[in-house]
Amino acid sequence: MASEHSAAGAGTDPASAPAPGRARKTAPGRAAKRPRSAADRGKYPFVIGFLIVPLALYAVFVIWPFIQAIYYSFTDWTGLSPDFKMVGFGNYKKMFDDDTFWKSAQHSVTYVVLLPVVVLGIALFLSFMINVGGRRRKGAAIAGVRGSSFYKIVYFFPQVLSIAIVALLFQFAYNPKTGALNSVLRGVRLGSVQPEWLGDPNLALWCIMAVLVWTQVGFFVVLFSAGMASIPSELYEAALLDGAGRFTTFFRLTLPLLWDTVQSGWVYMGILSLGAEAFAVVQIMSVGPGGPADSTTVLPLLVYQKAFGQGQAGYATTIGVALLVITLIFSGLVMRLGRRERLEF
Q: Which of 101, 195, 276, 327 is 20 to 30 A from 65 (CA-CA)?
């Protein structure tokens, strides 16, 4: 009895403690907190110290100009005088009633829809042929076409030239009287076929688009070639053993593994189509510029003309805001519709 009483008393004694050297158990569902080390405490100030300067520069030179542009779009600022007054949504109403704006927006949307498709499609085809599309050689399961290194240099060459020089060269080539294109047509006894090229409202936009394609394909050929070179050759060997042809290999193996690069290139090419590249080529090559009959006017050119040619900086920033919205919508759609499961190798 005494032993039972002593045992019971020991079990109910609130002052009882675990035996020395025995770890105290934590309650179920509660994780033991690990004390923060000195490295953990110093990590966040270290990261913040590296980010604060780039973020400050980004805010000053990117975010703040956007805010200013949106503010000036509600004014009648001429761009030459410090004096202006608020006009509310007057500039936006003027923009929606402006036929030239809608023509320019149509041309810009045409560029942003077609240029990425054409440029990336050609670049993917050429990259595949350079890296994978050649005949089998001894000691290599896959190989590119002969002279692939030379082709990479040739395709990338337009990137070395200034866009202004490229536009001037093609402007001379498109000259209906002394240009290279019509001279070639006359040389093959097609003298009756002498298009006006940049002087024809039905051809001018497509002639300029062809120049943009020529200047940009080489960059993406090199970009996609680098991506294809990083794909393990064992994957291609397995596909060949399974009897896959080039068409199947490209769409079932190469393209899925390059999809992240293609998606980024799509956004980048779309921004170029809406930005400085399109503006420079249209400004230099087209009649007017922007002609004939506004057949080649794009939104960046219209912004330039309104701000610096007609002294309507407030209205020009309104068109710039519309261009920003189009760019954001395009980027969002590409990132959303192009989302797919990430493949790793």
A: 101
